[in-house]
Amino acid sequence: MKKIQQSPKALLLPLLVSSVLAGCVAEPEPTETDLELDVIIEDQDLEETVSESDTLPQISDPLPQLGMKLFYSKSLGGEFDSACVTCHHPVLGGGDDLSLPVGVEAVNPDLLGQGREHVDGLPLVPRNAPTVFNVGLWDTSLFWDSRVESIGKEEGANGALSGIRTPDSDFGVADADAGTNLAAAQARFPVTSAEEMKTSRFEADSDNAAIRDHLAARIGDYGEGEGELDTNEWLTEFQAAFASAESAEDLITFDNIALAIGEYERSMNFVDTPWSLYVEGDLDAITADQKEGAKLFFTAVNEGGAGCSNCHNGTLFSDGNHHTIAFPQIGPGKGDGATGDDDFGRERETSNPIDRYRFRTPSLLNVAVTAPYGHSGSYQTLEQVVRHYVNPRGAVGAFYQRGGVCQLPQFENIDNCGELYPNSESNTELALAKLANERNQGVSLFASPRLNDQQVQQLVAFLEALTDPCVEDRSCLDAWIPDADTTGPDGQQLNAVNENGGFL
Ligand code: HEC
Ligand code: HEC
User: Fold this and answer.
1) pLDDT number for residue 371
2) Residue limits of CATH 1.10.760.10 in the chain
3) CATH class of the domain at 62-268
4) The domain 308-448: what is its CATH number?
5) Helix (H) or strand (E) holding 322
6) What does the pLDDT average to over 301-317?
């Protein structure tokens, strides 16, 4: 995935030579590692991956502002107890800090992160909530199994050019209603999920179109949704954002709701990382350990590296493809396998068994703030993830040795946590067997590096250099979070609190 705009990056060596000639002392002396990295940066065209996009919306623009209010409104939850932000809060890395999300029917709907519990105890959502940061940079697909997918995957287009396949259309076929980009297309689906936002009671047995129409009518205060909100100032908001005088029926459609939400998400562009500064020539932007980690990351296993950029490459550090990695499978699963609690990943979309247990390579931008990791949130730390690559079978064994889900903050206080997901280990074993099989056949891009403890730490340090400082700074994130003194256009704004009752 390449960025649209090219940034002018001074070549390292000429710059150093000229500064030495000019008697400039400010320029740090390049270490041997800097020189080696310079070759990698040149060979792999990494400057192209760190430049800013100029095609994404700004949060101060009218549509993202409207989208933010919708993203935080519980009115899009069938029974007013879940909003998009429930699982994607900026302060929680654009995710929810949980292994598996708790959407509807939480004990306290406004409590996000650790401590959020379903009234019946266990989370009902089978996959980890990925970050919504930098969603505008995906050109291939969204979701762990890419079930929202650009047909042509044009670079820099965010799916806008060639049509988008969604769960509402057949595999490989564009959904005529998908909207203008991947973010808008994706935003049509959480509201239709009983576990995430809808509840099983709201519009029970209705198709996706009927669910969306009802919610739009609720927001627009017309037709079947009329009077469902005690306070309703949405028409004013929509007319301002779309610069339109149209009626609620014409303006407050689900298409426009999804468009605005998508623009809000696309304004969350957090790519100014220490690593990008380094690639652009600031030798002091990252530490010596991070530099060693970078070398490992971008060097193939058979050349002494860790081979990570085989799959984690481009602006987002994702090839947009699907791979078998065999992280532990925990939770209720997607209804797959003999016991119904497995998750076949990409195979669910392609119907091709070759894609079983393959998941879309996640982005690594801001990965330090998006724990837990993997499609079911089973690894809690970056070190655990890196050790999985070194020895997948050993790392999985260690995961169950440590107590499986019982070691995860979300489950550790559940009395019978050891009995929650009895097939977790055997399901994971099947994924490990698939990985071994792919390796035997030479079709896996996953080769295990030999790394000592120091190198593991260096790789983790490099991953931490992929964090935009804004995502760790509450005042910087302010622009993406409505003021908690307000309740929004409909009195349903989710002003999130943590388990201690403080506002996020
Ligand atoms: C109950 C938690 C929950 C709620 C509420 C929720 N999401 Fe998500 N979101 C998830 C999970 C889980 C996934 C991954 C699902 C999968 O891949 O199968 C996801 C995936 C996404 C993605 C794809 C990210 C990527 O990199 O592939 C986007 C974008 C997103 N959600 C936006 C939204 C929007 C917009 C809303 C509101 C309309 C919303 N979410 C509501 C849990 C939630
Ligand atoms: C063969 C392709 C491939 C290679 C090589 C690879 N990864 Fe991954 N990576 C993936 C996929 C696919 C996932 C998601 C797996 C899952 O959820 O089951 C993932 C997940 C991750 C995650 C968790 C991210 C998140 O948000 O959940 C991290 C961190 C990570 N990889 C780092 C690395 C590092 C470091 C290396 C090199 C040692 C590496 N990866 C090598 C494909 C790859």
Assistant:
1) 98
2) 62-268
3) mainly alpha
4) 1.10.760
5) strand 322-324
6) 97
